[in-house]
């Protein structure tokens, strides 16, 4: 593997939380000059391991991922999130545990580094709003999304209006569950992000059903459009979507390796210039849809989305 040198004009990136596979996937595309999805313009230079003792997928992987980042990609391992932020131009919070994203951001926000926060931004609307409030107060650009948001097949399908306007959609995707990450927050967030891309903002209420094999979520928009999400725990590990339009429909195969490449390119083009390509209002609505779905899958009732403010 040919690890390129780090010229001074590269954006220096630091990772906070090394217990998630995305930390390694991002670094591969930035630091390995021979990677087929190489992204130029940035380099991961340092990181802080973190890890959550009560989250098995976190504590069981943080050591392995930390060693790979250090030994294979030349990432320097530091002893605190603050030390990482002090050394870099942009911070990626890549902690697997969505519960810790707010406290980690609170530790680095006054260092005023543009920050990408992995999905989910937070595991509650309260924490999500507080992250954006802190960012606004410090005048720091914050971006959060699932990498599914920027897959090329999704972008092409949504942009193709030859069959008229989008009047609804059906999304399906894997939805394993993790006890420390409530309901849809762990993996359902990928598909809810796709719903937001296809339908836009304006969801008014949600109803959800869960059994051991799957979840089924129905979301209604204020203009009467309806979208559904099928979260799969039994069957193929696959992401897909049917877009319903005024004069027909489109099926979209969503699983595509360029998710990481496209996301990195947008981070480097936007966060380094103090802006986010994802509106805070979209991210907040995604969190609210997930909260409503989680409440509905417990109660069996339709749950209305509460009003939201991005700061």
Detailed description of the structure:
The protein is an alpha/beta fold. The chain is 35% helix and 23% strand. The chain has 2 domains: 157 residues, Rossmann fold; 125 residues, Dihydrodipicolinate Reductase, domain 2. It is built from 10 helices and 13 strands. Helix 5 links the parallel strand 4 and strand 5. Helix 6 packs antiparallel against helix 10. The mean pLDDT is 95.
Could you give a quick summary of the protein structure above?
The protein is of the alpha/beta class. The protein has 10 helices and 13 strands. The strands form 2 sheets. The chain has a 7-stranded mixed sheet with strand order 12-11-7-10-9-8-13.
SSE pattern: EHEHHEHEHEHEHEHEEEEEHHE
Q: Based on Cα principal axes, name the global outline.
A: globular
**CATH class descriptor of the largest domain:** Alpha Beta
Question: In angstroms, what is the radius of gyration?
Answer: 19 Å
User: How many discrete structural domains?
Assistant: 2
Please estimate the helix content.
Answer: 25-40%
Q: How would you state the average pLDDT, rounded?
A: 95
Q: Structural class of the helices, strands and pairings?
A: alpha/beta
Q: What is the CATH third-level topology name of the largest domain? A: Rossmann fold
